[in-house]
Structures are given as C-alpha cells and as structure tokens.
Write a structure and sequence with these properties.
By secondary structure, the protein is of the alpha+beta class. It has two domains: 101 residues, 2-Layer Sandwich (Alpha-Beta Plaits), CATH 3.30.70.120; 230 residues, no CATH class. The protein is 68% helix and 9% strand. The chain contains 14 helices and four strands. It has a four-stranded antiparallel β-sheet with strand order 2-3-1-4. The N and C termini lie far apart (58 Å).
C-alpha cells in the first residue's frame, strides 16, 4: 500500500466547480470540511500513482485562483475495512498488468521531484560547509595515501544533488533552475580546487602515491563508471531514496579527481592537472548522460503548453549535447594514449 494525502484549500466561490472535478479522480477516501468562513478544506486519500494527475489539475487552478492552496502529505499507515484483503488484491492486479506498464520506471510525482531538484540546485551554508570539509578530508586522504580516509570524504560530499538537478532541469527545459544547478556544481568544484591547490602549493607530499596518480590518468573505462554513477543517482532521486549511499558513487567520480587536479595545479604539475581535468569532465558528462536518459525514460513531462514546447526542444538537445561532448573527450583520450 503506497498512499498519499492531498489537502486542498478552496475559496467558497470556486468550491462547487473544483470539488466536482476532484471527485472525478480515482481516490480511496474523500473528506470535505469548512476550514474558515471563506474557504473549504478537501482531503483526498489517493494511491501514489494517481497523485501527479490530480496535482496537474490543481496546479492549473492555483495559477488563477486567489487563496487556493494545496499540500501533499505522505501516509505511513491507513487502516479501514477495505484494506484487510488489499495485499491479495494488489497481487492480482500486478499479475494483470501488461508488459508496457511493467516496463515503466517507478517514481515520485513530478511536483515532488521538482521541489527536490530546486532544493538541490541552491547554494546553502550546509552545502558549502560539507563541501569544504569533504575537500579537506579527501586531500589529506590522498596525501596520506589512505583509501579509507578518501572514502570517508566521499560519504560526506554532497556532490550528487546539483549534478542530478542539472539533468532534471534540462529534461523539463527549466533554464532558470538549470543555471542555478550549474552554478551550484561549479561552486562546489571551486571550493575543492581552492583547498587542494593550497595543499599542493604548501607541500609536495602525496604527489607520488597511488591515490594521487590514479586520479591524474583517464581511460575509456572511466566512462562506464560515470554512467553507472549517474544512473544510480537518477534512480535514487526518482524514488526519493536516501542519497547518502548513492551519493558516494557520484563523489567517487567527482571529488578525488578534483582534488588531484587542484594538488597538481598547486604543485605546478600541469600535465597531471590536465589528466585530472579530463577525468573530471568525462565523469561529469557520463553522469549527466545517464541521468538525462533515466529521466526521459521515466516519463517526466511538464503540463503547461509553453513548458511542454520548451521541454520538447531541451530534452533531445541536452542528450545530443552531452553525447557529443563525451565523443570528443573519448577521441582526446584515445589520441593521448597514442602519443604516450
């Protein structure tokens, strides 16, 4: 049982029309009460799969009706006479589903995902501090050649959020959110570079160990690593799962190579810095390619006509752009290996 509760505050003069429209949607329970002298409160208990359709209708109304408000509340437990044999019924329904429905990716509603993406795309004090701390820990881990310390740094590095937000906003054609997400990602990488450049300038320790050298070399096999990381991050985001464990995969692809690039710049080893830069770029583009693809398959689409038109242009362009960049980077990597 996967249910959510939608609370809708409707001005009295619009109640009859909206109430009738809401009741047409499939729901488990439906309650109406007087919230105040001017507004009515409607509570709708619905299956999660039906949430997005209802919210789409409510979104259109909220743009033109003053005093109209909607809240979405997750439901942990719901008991009634109808739920006693629900498990068996759900099993029967699953068996009757056709192959197309089975192939669809499960995900939260577009509105929940949009709110999460907007949150991930903002630069906050917590984000800045976590990036700062993870950069220090990762740099020290590389200098000490300690894999455990580097992994610890990747656990606390919040690098998955902005990158996933970039892919999500590109799919919807939300260029404002796209700009914020790109800025947030660059801001995080910049903090890592500043910290690691300082360490590289002040000391040459750690410039010969495996933790450092492995992050200054890039091969074609690094592309599948980035793709797998991006796919895992996108799936976790779609299902609103905890990003900590999946975030480590994305941090694996971004944090240590960024540290290696900064240490190389600080030490004046620009050939190594170039290799680390290629690795960071390859990983970012691979992550974006996987995330954009997953989001496209999941069926995320805007509702308003202008947004639909913009998304129809942005979606294929974003995929083509990332693929072209990856192909160019792959060519550069192959040429570099021939020279070596």
């Amino acid at each position: 049982m996967n249910l959510q509760l939608i609370e809708v505050y409707i001005p009295d003069q619009h109640f009859d029309t909206i109430n009738e429209k809401l009741q047409d949607h499939e729901h488990r329970s439906y309650w109406v009460s007087s919230e105040s002298e001017e507004r009515m409160l409607v509570r709708i208990l619905v299956d999660t799969k039906n949430v997005e359709e209802i919210l789409n209708d409510l979104e259109e109304v909220s743009n033109v009706v003053e005093g109209f408000e909607t809240m979405l509340i997750p439901v942990q437990t719901y008991l009634s006479k109808d739920t006693i044999n629900e498990a068996a019924k759900e099993e029967e329904e699953k068996e009757k589903e056709d192959s197309d429905k089975k192939a669809q990716l499960l995900r939260a509603s577009r509105h929940e995902l949009m709110n999460a993406a907007e949150k991930n795309g903002h630069i906050t004090v917590n984000y800045s501090l976590l990036i700062l701390l993870s950069a220090i820990v990762a740099t020290v881990g590389i200098i000490k050649n300690s894999e455990a310390v580097v992994i610890g740094a990747m656990v606390i590095a919040p690098m998955i959020g902005p990158v996933i937000a970039i892919a999500f906003s590109a799919i919807l054609g939300d260029y404002k959110l796209l700009g914020k997400s790109v800025l947030s990602s660059l801001y995080g990488v910049l903090i890592v570079l500043v910290i690691s450049i300082a360490f590289g300038f002040l000391t040459d320790a750690g410039m010969e160990n495996s933790q450092y050298l492995d992050r200054t070399k890039v091969t074609l096999i690094d592309i599948p690593l980035g793709v797998a990381s991006g796919a895992a991050g996108a799936l976790a985001f779609l299902n609103r799962l905890s990003g900590n464990l999946v975030g480590v995969m994305v941090a694996v692809a971004l944090l240590p190579p960024s540290v290696a690039m900064g240490m190389s710049i600080g030490d004046g080893s620009f050939d190594a810095a170039y290799g680390a830069f290629l690795l960071v770029t390859v990983n970012i583009m691979s992550i974006l390619l996987a995330a954009v693809t997953i989001f496209s398959i999941s069926g995320i689409r805007p509702v308003r006509w202008k947004e639909v038109q913009r998304a129809n242009v942005s979606r294929p362009l974003s995929i083509v752009f990332v693929v072209v960049i990856i192909l160019i980077l792959a060519f550069v990597i192959l040429e570099g290996q021939k020279i070596i």
